[in-house]
Amino acid sequence: MSGPLSGIRVFDLTRILAGPTATQMLGDLGAEVIKIERPGAGDDTRKWGPPFITDSAGKETSESAYYLAINRNKKSVTLDVAKPEGQEIAKRLIAKCDVFVENFKVGDMARYNLAYDQIKIDFPRLIYSSITGFGQTGPYAPRAGYDFLAQGMGGIMSINGDPSTPPQKVAVAVTDIICGIYSVVGILAALQHRHLTGRGQQVDLALLDTQVSWLANVGLQYLTSGVIPKQFGNEHPSIVPYSVVPSSDGHFILAIGNDRQFAEFAKFAGKPEWAEDDRFKTNPARVRNRVECYRVIHEATSQKPQAHWIEGLAALDVPCGPVNNMKQVFEDPQVLHRGMKVTMPHPLSGKGTVDLIGNPVKLSETPVDYRLAPPFCGQHTDAVLREMLHMSDDELAALRAKKVI
pLDDT band for position 1 (50/70/90)? Predict the structure, then answer.
């Protein structure tokens, strides 16, 4: 096994999206991830389809595209932690792990005798990462939380979408994903702290906290001015022009970030006078006069095809680009060159392989390692329990008879 986290073992009691995103990232970086799933059921997202992998006969399997998206580089072990025998096995596995990641509602782990306060004395070096809707403390802590709720409560829906539409969530469950990534940052920091002190700790991540954190400049605009931001659609509240604009055969993105770029664009558009117009020559002026600025730009860009603008402006270092659909994304030469589409063998696929989205982290000395395709439910149960806990065939058979594994 290679990667900067080689030798780190993760007890992964997560499902859905935020937690599995975190543990997939840890696995991509070299950690050994033991994914714990319910016997006979597995991760909820296995059933979140269609689409599903199809077998050689074209029949749907139990592996959904949703599940495949965030579960590679993991070993699947089925274990019922609601049963005392399952809890005992879980603790024996945790004893051999460096990191425990869970994303159950506050209080659920205590019912299974696996809450941080219940096990931290026995495992003082353990990094225990909890991902919840609202965190371990506060008036909302006991509530169940989901990405959609966090987007609404955390403000992003109030500024996303066109002003003529109702509040709009982001199409991808982005708060879940960012929360998972933030949890990895916390886990890595806790591992470094353990390296220095020998002590583990709990990493407490909340979807709502995460959503508020990435309001970024728009959140600060409110905190600085007291003015509640509104929906800007594809426009930017502080930069103009920065939006989708029309061409004669479609649309393209114009993302001008400074006055030099605007002057280059104006000249290329055959309107060099715009760069000297008091309404448009500086970004603050363009923001104040955004309606008129976009009106004249749309009038000019709609006269020529998309390729004219994208190719010509790119040559002038004026940021612009297409609005790709998914087919175009995964055929884009830059996306392919950067390894953002990967193909891995999968035993249930009729093609023998599955296509996955690659990891964006590029490390020069310890690159991401795609070792294991997303496992089918319980694929590694016997192997892991034999290797880590030295269980015999008879022990495994007895546990399976009791539906503990």
Answer: low
As a whole number, mean pLDDT of residues 181-194 equals 98
Is 135 within 8 Å of 223 (Cβ atoms)?
no
Q: What whole-number distance in Å separates Cα of residue 281 and Cα of residue 289?
A: 11
User: What's the CA gap between 179 and 201, in Å, rounded?
Assistant: 18
Give strand ranges (E) for 70-162. 75-78, 99-102, 127-132
Domains identified in the chain and CATH numbers: 9-214+334-401 (3.40.50.10540), 242-326 (3.30.1540.10)
| pLDDT for residue 232 is more than 90 | no
CA 108 to chain centre: 24
What pTM does this model have?
Answer: 0.93
Q: Give residue 237's pLDDT.
A: 86
Cα distance from N-terminal residue to C-terminal residue, the chain: 27
Using CA atoms, how far apart are residues 355 and 139, in angstroms rounded to an integer? 43
Cβ neighbour number for residue 280 with a 10 Å cutoff: 24
pLDDT of res. 2: 76
334 burial via Cβ count (<10 Å: 0-12, 13-18, 19+): exposed
**Closest residue by Cα to residue 181 from 21, 67, 340:** 21
The DSSP call for residue 229 is P
Q: Which of 147, 176, 204, 209 is catalytic?
A: 176
Instruction: Tell me, rounded to whole angstroms, the distance of Cα 82 from its chain centroid.
Output: 29
> How far, rounded to the nearest angstrom, does the alpha carbon of residue 9 sit from its chain's CA centroid?
21
CB 91 within 8 A of CB 122: yes
Give φ, ψ of 106 to 5 degrees: -55, 130
Which tens digit of pLDDT belongs to each residue from 347-374? 999 999 999 999 999 999 999 999 999 9
Active site residue 176: yes
pLDDT tens across 69-121, in order? Answer: 999 999 999 999 999 999 999 999 999 999 999 999 999 999 999 999 999 99
